Amino acid sequence: MKTKVLMVCLGNICRSPLAEGILKSKVDITTVYIDSAGTGGYHIGNPPDPRSIAIARKYGIDISRQVCRKLKATDLDDFDIIYAMDKSNYGNIIGLSRNEEQAAKVKLLLGETNDGELEVPDPYYDTADGFDHVFHLIDKACDAIAKKLS
Ligand code: 4NP
Hints:
The protein has 6 helices and 4 strands; from the N terminus they run E-H-E-H-H-E-H-H-E-H. Strand 1, helix 1 (about 15-25) and strand 2 form a beta-alpha-beta unit. By secondary structure, it is of the alpha/beta class.
């Protein structure tokens, strides 16, 4: 059975689509299933933010066909590991959990790297530089995750 990994942020248009695309580029997707979702429902059905699409493309990853969806309670049953981009997302995901087993699936993405930073900053109101920084934070964490999953 495939290991199922879910990447979660607030809008599911900036950070978690990048995390989904980056991790997919580093693992064997015949053995790992990766998806992303948002705790908020502001952009359901939309593609990722054009700035996320552009920064991914700059590094050779196509995320343009992803579609935004909202996190649902059953995701905590269906996925093995759920990565939150920041502590607010983490709290919202934990809030949907119904038992210890589900809560134990939820982790901060940057907990996978040891750089002091624990939160991927929300780049939505930031400049293009913010998206580049976010890309590299996520990329490093995904290197560590890919190593664990291989
Ligand atoms: P994300 O960024 O959580 O990384 O997708 C955001 C995108 C949209 C909004 C907030 C954060 N928003 O409020 O619409």
